[in-house]
């Protein structure tokens, strides 16, 4: 894995921040960048694969069970005031959506993607084997020792040990009980494996990277630190929210997508976190028009401001400059 995984990994950030430009810049700066296939159509994923090269990765969401239609319908009714606020229609429920999983795996095979990571679950062993035969190294994201044991049974080349401080979606397969209070060091210590482990979550400065490498990780994955990178596709409303100092805290919420995710606290998380059901991606589809309208209106109070606990250390600048500040040995 050391020929592909550099000490610093720029995390896949679905929903816009991860772009081919960000991945290319990360690679050029000596890090490993990941594209995010989540939410995207297969043609959009293919276009991004054509735009990158070198030692890069692609992250794919593993589909879960269908959502509980009654719970999602109740949540749909609660969201009506938001639809009225932004002048949009709430869509019909989509309860069984696999995010075109098989097609995205086929694209990874066809393009011989060097690194393919999975989150939200464990792909079938046949999927892992097919990718490996195509030349890919496969990584599976886990949040506990139990998840690691199940992931290892699929035969991956490495694991990603994700702590609760990570921004965006947690990889947990137990969304009902996830609270996000387990540190990355704790998850790294709990995940005993014969394969390399990448540590992820809550990384803000070079000292965090050094601490996790010293604890046994082969690399450290950072996402929030690159949200304000020049090459990132982060929405203007989130950039302004962070740069203006409006971000005060993060919260783990299912309010936007039906799966636990860490976001900057705003009006939407305060209002809907207590009532949000488990149900990814049904809830994601349900709130999509609201979030799109809020983003169009530059209203950061109505969008999913994914970010980890290290958000206060995020800075603007080129990806190369940000990579340099996080590399082991950096004085920043």
UniProtKB/TrEMBL annotation:
This is Propionate 3-nitronate monooxygenase. The keyword Oxidoreductase applies. Belongs to the nitronate monooxygenase family. NMO class I subfamily. Its cofactor is FMN. It holds the Pfam family NMO. It catalyses: 3 propionate 3-nitronate + 3 O2 + H2O = 3 3-oxopropanoate + 2 nitrate + nitrite + H2O2 + 3 H(+). The keyword Oxidoreductase applies. InterPro entries: Aldolase_TIM (IPR013785), NMO (IPR004136). It comes from the Bacteria.
């Amino acid at each position: 894995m050391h020929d592909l995984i550099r000490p610093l990994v720029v995390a896949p950030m679905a929903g816009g921040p991860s772009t081919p430009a960000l991945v290319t810049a990360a690679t050029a700066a000596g890090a490993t960048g990941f594209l995010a296939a989540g939410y995207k159509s297969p043609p959009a994923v293919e276009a991004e694969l054509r735009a990158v090269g070198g030692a890069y990765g692609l992250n794919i969401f593993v589909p879960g069970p269908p959502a509980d239609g009654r719970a999602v319908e109740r949540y749909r009714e609660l969201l009506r005031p938001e639809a009225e606020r932004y002048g949009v229609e709430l869509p019909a429920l989509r309860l069984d959506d696999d995010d075109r999983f098989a097609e995205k795996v086929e694209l990874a095979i066809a393009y011989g993607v060097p690194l393919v990571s999975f989150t939200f679950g464990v792909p079938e062993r046949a999927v892992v084997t097919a990718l490996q035969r195509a030349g890919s190294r496969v990584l599976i994201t886990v949040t506990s020792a139990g998840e690691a044991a199940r992931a290892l049974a699929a035969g991956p080349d490495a694991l990603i040990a994700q702590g609760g401080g990570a921004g965006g979606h947690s990889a947990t397969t137990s969304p009902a009980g996830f609270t996000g209070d387990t540190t990355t060091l704790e998850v790294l210590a709990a995940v005993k494996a014969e394969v390399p482990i990448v540590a992820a979550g809550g990384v803000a400065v070079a000292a965090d990277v050094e601490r996790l490498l010293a604890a046994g990780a082969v690399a450290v994955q950072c996402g929030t630190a690159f949200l304000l990178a020049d090459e990132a596709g982060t929405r203007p409303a989130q950039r302004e929210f962070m740069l203006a100092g409006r971000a005060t805290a993060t919260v783990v919420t299912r309010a936007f997508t039906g799966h636990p995710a860490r976001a900057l606290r705003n009006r939407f998380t305060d209002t809907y976190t207590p009532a949000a059901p488990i149900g990814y991606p049904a809830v994601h589809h349900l709130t999509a028009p609201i979030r799109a309208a809020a983003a169009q209106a530059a209203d950061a109070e109505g969008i999913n401001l994914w970010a980890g606990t290290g958000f206060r250390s995020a800075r603007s600048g080129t990806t190369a400059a940000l990579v340099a500040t996080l590399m082991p040995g950096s004085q920043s």
